[in-house]
UniProtKB/TrEMBL annotation:
Domain of life (superkingdom): Bacteria
GO molecular function: aminopeptidase activity
PANTHER family: HYDROLASE, PUTATIVE (AFU_ORTHOLOGUE AFUA_2G14860)-RELATED, MONOACYLGLYCEROL LIPASE
Family statement drawn from the similarity comment of this UniProt entry: Belongs to the peptidase S33 family.
Enzyme Commission no: 3.4.11.5
Protein name: Proline iminopeptidase
Top-tier EC class: hydrolase
Domain (AB hydrolase-1) ranges: 24-137
Keyword set, alphabetical order: Aminopeptidase, Hydrolase, Protease
């Protein structure tokens, strides 16, 4: 089974399933908010499905999933509840969860709210505290602006990174300064600039519609505001096996957040990829798949 649509709490969500039905199940949660599972599945579906039953979805209102209308509500906990309802509809007793970036935040919330549904948790470059992640991102962006001789934008990055602005103001600056980097923006995330990360099969018209849906999704998640709440105090509530995979050059999972994970997650494990950044599933795909599979199989065995 590959791409299909499954009705979850009144909306048709795009779901992909790869691998043997008897293999240990793994749910992948994409980042963003407002990205999709598209790129991850390009780079990891074949690799992970050799040993696992890989399940992914475009989150509610995102990309190929049914659109959310302007007058419909959407919260982070709607996204968490969708995970649980999908598990029940697929008849899965318990599954591992892998979250990338914003998906890592969702994975933590899901594991805390439904501890009997999640067997193990893998976090790829997660953000436990969005504001700390953005501030760290801006410090790295400042060095790129310096490299191209844009002293004004470099100073703006440093000012926001070290200032006392409100979360919405910090977010607005992050968006504006990210756009200002143009083609250099991906170099904040990964040393190689993310070349060949996306191999698009959809038409321009389809991508425009996907973008429209995603914009509604993103605006509602940020308007709700819970995305700005730090999860660092909640890490102590995780009791299941948790693997944090971090790229040394990743601006999102900063050192402060990494230290909190190491100190507070009682059954936590850390792997650092020294040459990579935020897109480990793309930058080191073979190693990433091997580490994920090994961790899930060992966790299930124990």
């Amino acid at each position: 089974m590959k791409g299909t649509f499954i009705k979850i709490r009144g909306k048709s969500l795009y779901v992909e399933i790869h691998g043997n039905e008897e293999a240990p199940p793994l749910l992948y949660l994409h980042g963003g908010p407002g990205e999709s599972c598209y790129e991850f599945m390009i780079h990891q579906a074949d690799r992970l499905s050799e040993k696992l039953r890989l399940i992914s979805m475009d989150q509610r209102g995102v990309w190929r999933s049914e659109a959310i209308e302007e007058d419909e509500p959407l919260t982070i906990y709607d996204l968490v509840e969708d995970c649980e309802q999908l598990r029940r509809q697929l008849g899965i007793q318990k599954w591992a969860v892998l979250g990338h970036s914003f998906g890592g935040l969702l994975g933590v919330l899901y594991a805390i709210h439904y501890p009997n549904s999640v067997s193990s948790l893998i976090l790829e470059g997660p953000s436990f505290d969005l504001i700390k992640s953005i501030r760290n991102w801006l410090r790295k962006a400042a060095s790129l602006y310096e490299s191209i001789g844009d002293a004004e934008k470099m100073a703006a990055c440093i000012d926001i990174a070290n200032g006392a602005q409100t979360p919405p103001e910090i977010l607005d600056a992050f968006i504006e300064l990210g756009q200002g980097l143009g083609d250099l923006r991906m170099k904040v995330y990964t040393p190689n600039g993310g070349s060949n990360y996306t191999k698009m099969i959809y038409s321009e018209r389809e991508r425009e519609e996907f973008g429209r849906r995603t914009n509604i999704h993103v605006s509602k998640i940020f308007a709700e505001g819970r995305i700005f709440d730090s999860l660092l105090p909640k890490l102590k509530e995780l009791t299941l096996p948790v693997l944090l995979i971090k790229g040394r050059h990743d601006p999102i999972i900063c050192e402060e957040q990494t230290d909190s994970f190491v100190n507070d997650v009682r059954n936590g494990h850390l792997k650092v990829y020294e040459e990579s950044g935020h897109l480990l599933h793309f930058e080191e795909p073979e190693r990433f798949a091997m580490d994920v599979i090994q961790f899930i199989l060992e966790s299930n065995h124990n």
